[in-house]
Amino acid sequence: xxxxxxxxxGPGGYVCALKMAKLGMRVxxxxxxxxxxTCTNRGCIPMKAxxxxxxxxxxxxxxxxRFGITVKNVSHTPKLFDHMRRSVLTSRKxxxxxxxxxxxxxxxxxxxxxxxxxxxxxNDGEEVVEAKNLIVATGSxxxxxPPFDSVDGIWTSDDYFKDPVLPASVLIVGGGVIxxxxxxxxxxxxxxxxxxEMMERILPSEDEDISAVIHxxxxxxxxxxxxxxxxxKLEKRERSYKVWVESKGMEKELEIxxxxxxxxxxxxxxxxxxxxxxRINGGLGTDSTMRTDVEGVxxxxxxxxxxxxxxxxxxxGVVAAYNVARHTVEMDYSAVPMVIFSxxxxxxxxxxxxxxxxxxxxxxxxxxxxxxxxxxxxxxxEGFAKIVADKEGxxxxxAIVAYGATEMIMEGVMAVRYGLKVEQLESLxxxxxxxxxxxxxxxxxxxxxxxxx
Length: 453
Fold this sequence. Notes:
By secondary structure, the chain is α/β, with parallel strands linked by helices. It is 30% helix and 26% strand. The strands form 5 sheets. Strands 1, 2, 3, 4, 5, 6 and 16 form a 7-stranded mixed β-sheet that branches. The chain has a 5-stranded antiparallel β-sheet with strand order 17-18-21-20-19.
């Protein structure tokens, strides 16, 4: 008998399995698809690989001449997808190696729950594995709804990475993280992109000044953006789709080659879950130790239906592993970074300015990237850094819209997580010339003494 069965090998599942193995437990992972789950095979890794190709192409086509470099006959070929495939394979093989190295058994097939301690693995045959503990880490799947669920050939993000192409035109439904990243990729390579968002602006979960920067950049890249809009009807043609879009009281008809639905994801519950009598409310409910209300059963990652981010799933996996090993550790969600690989990138942690409830007096300071020396040398001068603090100067939130924002946010994560004051960040010597100086400039602004604007 195993100490634990981990159902799913995505970021939460494989990290949980590795941590339990390092804590001395005997662990088995059950996976019906590819090792690494959605993030490695159909999400984070392939998307960021394609965006890395797009970043290079954008740099060559838009900045080379300004740097005094002449580049002729720049073009792209279907081989640009080879980098994506190599990145996925490398990441997947790396996870497989780590599981093997740490003595974690892997059973390939669909895991169907028999009870809290037994999982039936169905592949070409059947095998039942037993353990003292069960960690459900079965992830999520794209949301499909009318009229898209009744028409053939509609892409979700999962579908696109199976056989990626660059169509002549694409309609992207949903202006959240997935929709914005796909719009960035497609538009960089000259695809005619139409982005439809039901809310009044794209990236509606973020502050308006953040979404405004990305809206303008996508427009400059040729993306046609319809906000406060929805697709009411569509018809599949021989090689295209006819789409009716209701936008601010008016109906528009579009002819489009492909459609990508990017309106979020929902938990993927494993077969037999009803046998456990678990509390299910959109996803599997847990306490802060990742325990469900059934003894010995834990849930981590997207299957909980809460914060669907790979890095959150990873931390939840570690927390679950400690608690399975009888070390009481609780999950802390007070400083979860959110990153978007748009152009420029976005990274946010803690309180958004728009979410301040008025009961707490806040101070807000923004520092423009255009005033940063390193940004000038890179010719990446769009965006800003923003600090939200309380009246005593405690940092409540940090937002960065800038080249390299996703790499700079950890300063903000630590500040929010440990309740640092603006004086503490201001006193730190930031290297010059670097992009992270925009954060320092925003901190100075909270103190009323920004030196470089």
